[in-house]
Amino acid sequence: MASTHTEEPLAEDTANHDAHIYEEVMLCERMEHNQRLAVEELITTEASYVHNLQLCLSDIRAHLQKKQLPGLDLEGLFSNIDDILHVSRRFLRGLQDTATQGHEQLLSISTLFQEFKEEMEMVYKIYCASYEHALLLVESYRKDPRLQEEIMDTLTATVPHTSASDLSFFLVMPVQRVTKYPLLLGKILENTPASTSAHEALAAAVRAMTQVNANINEYKRRREVATKYNKAEQLTLRDRFARLNTHSIAKKTTRLSRLLMHEAGIVAKTEDKEYDELEEKFQSVASSVAALKENVASYLQHLEVKPRLCAGSWSHPGLRTRSGGRRTPLRPLQTAAGGAQGFVFLS
């Protein structure tokens, strides 16, 4: 009887152990299955994306170019989408090549994203910064019956299977794609065991693409700020008064009070060293351009209608005319920005 009572707990422990092992095996198989599906999703959606980019350029844009419609800004609409297609084609080939690499596939995919991250950031940040302008163009074309009809005829003729209502259906694709890369990689990562070597590589790829998106957003933000202030500088005094309202006055008052508190030391200043360095470089370039403009204007002012080049006749920093030997000094570029001063050839 004692033997029977001892065997029952042992059998129960064995059953529990087997059940635990079974659950672990099933969990691993489920993760592996989901991981495989996530990898397939990454590759198949990339192929579909590249195909749509090709349609956008070789069919839609080419069709609109042939029409030569006045008032249609194709460069503003499509921006640098050619560069995006070039990078995406190469990236897709790399993804497709990983399909034959077996257990090394995840490591290869991670490496591929690391290799392409800088190129992707460079082309996508330009496109994303111009995207809102493209949408404004699309909206303006909707209000022009003639242009809208021509655009819809092009979409019907070239991509009838997409049921696209306007060009924004295709223009948004690059914006959506670059923001989806961290999500697609994250889905693969969450189905990869932490004990594998691919886990850390995938995590690094997720961080890299997340940073790429953050950099794109920051670039876009700075472009918007620069555009905003450039437009403000071009406004006439009447336009500036017309834009004043209670809200804008309140904002300016708040900014002024904050500035006064910063200067008085009541509130600590927020510093952005990278922004300050970029601003300093911008001011230096702007000063150089202004100096160059003055020099060229001075040169053109004293240039004769039919100049006769005299070999070996150089002058710096001024220009000399034949009549009267007068000299109009040029403003040295070196005073505006670092670098060697230029020499101007005299006629």
TrEMBL record:
Q: Name one GO cellular component term.
A: cytoplasm
- SUPFAM superfamilies to which the protein is assigned, alphabetical: DBL homology domain (DH-domain)
> GO molecular function, one example?
guanyl-nucleotide exchange factor activity
Domain named DH is located at 34-219
Question: Pfam families of this UniProt entry?
Answer: RhoGEF
Q: Which InterPro entries match?
A: AH/BAR_dom_sf, DBL_dom_sf, DH_dom, Dynamin-Rho_GEF
Gene3D superfamilies, per this entry?
Arfaptin homology (AH) domain/BAR domain, Dbl homology (DH) domain
Q: Which domain of life is it from?
A: Eukaryota
Which PANTHER family does the annotation name?
NUCLEAR FUSION PROTEIN FUS2, RHO GUANINE NUCLEOTIDE EXCHANGE FACTOR 37
Q: What is this protein called?
A: DH domain-containing protein
- Species this chain originates from: Bambusicola thoracicus (Chinese bamboo-partridge)
